[in-house]
Each structure stands twice: as structure tokens, then as C-alpha cells.
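Schema walk-through. Below, the input block comes first and the output block second. Nothing else is stored per chain. Lengths vary across the set, and this one has 243 residues.
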Amino acid sequence: MALSRTRIARPVRPPRPAGDKGPQLQAAKAAQTRARLIDATVRCLVKYGYANTTTPKVAEEAGLSRGAMMHHFENGTSLIKSTIAELHEKRLRAFRRAADKPVHEVTDLVETYWRQLQKPAFIAFHELAVAARTDSELASILKPLQDEFSEKFNAQAEQLFPEWASSPDNFALAMTLSQTILEGMAISLQTGAMVAEKVEPMLRHLERQIAALVPAAEGADAGAQASEPEAARPQRMPRRKSS
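--- output ---
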């Protein structure tokens, strides 16, 4: 979406008609329409790429008039900003669902994130990230939102994985390793640089690498884990300590 080409003046809103059903219903309808437009933006980014995504195309994809879209987003900048924020929020929600369990299985976490990367949301975000490299206006939108997301993600990770508290460096390494490898695999698969047959072996190898970074359990379990060969260790993170 060439933001400089999508500036639109905010229209004058008509007076509220008599017999209005109330602000709550209006707010709910507005939220639904905004979500519909954001979803349409994601689909356009996937289908057309950032440079060829325009506000008229988004309105058409959403099945709305341009005027209806302008009522919720005054220009392409506000639309793309809301879209990026929603893409980040979807990643946070997926992470919470995968991690908010009493026992953290490395396999579950890796496969859950891998499935998330196959969805249009990641393709759209990657399209934006690449475009921002040469588009200073887009970069000025993306960078602060990305920094905000990283802060929220790290804070959430520390809360959901208290068993890693004794090894913060290992935890940071495990998170960076999984994100870098899995996202790199997803991009390589999209571009044809990686064949589908390599996915499973790579996922299993990544699981072993992360499992090797997991802090040793306390007591007898720790001694047993230390005595086992790395490949024989169970691919499971320790249970959370009760609060």
C-alpha cells in the first residue's frame, strides 16, 4: 500500500438518526466493520503485496463502499497501523494459548508456532517487514509497533515460563533460536528455497536444541537428566512451580 497515494479526507458524519439503538450496539457494529477491513487488508497484502494494496482494493475485498471504509479509517496510514497492531495481537494470543499449560512440551510449542506461521497473518506481516526496508513512512509505523510487541512478548514469556527463571540467558537463546529458525523456514518454504520434505527433520532437530537448553529439574530429576545422553532426554519442559 503506497501510503502517500492513499490520503483521504475524513468525511463529515451525518447526524445520528432518531430511534438509534444505543451507543453499545453502534460500537459493536463499528468494531465488526473495523475488523472486517483489517482482515481484508491482510488478504490484500497476501494476494497483491504491499505496493499494490490500495484502499479501494481493501474496500472491495471487504465488500464495503469506499465511503464506509473512510468512516472508520481516514487514510491508508491509519488502516495499515491498525492492521499491524492486530497482527501483533494475534501472535500474542497464539503464544498465550500454546504456553498457558501446566506442563510445557517442547514439541507442542514448536509445532503450535509452526502452524501459526503457515497462516495469512504471518505472510502479511513478512510482506510489511520487507517493504519497510525501503519505505521510510512504513518503517516509521512498523518500528514503534514492533518495539512495543517485543516488550509485551518478553514480559508475557517470563510470566508464562517461570521454570526458566534460573536460566534467563538460556531462555532468551531458546526464544530467539525458535523464532529465527521457524520464521526462516516459513519464508524459505514460501519462496521455494526449502522443500516440504525438510520441514519435519528440521522441526525435530530444533526441538532437541531447545530441550538441551531447558534448566535442570530440582532434586532427583535433575541428576537423572544430567546422566542421560542428550538425545535420550524427554522433550519436555519442567512443570511450573506452584505459587
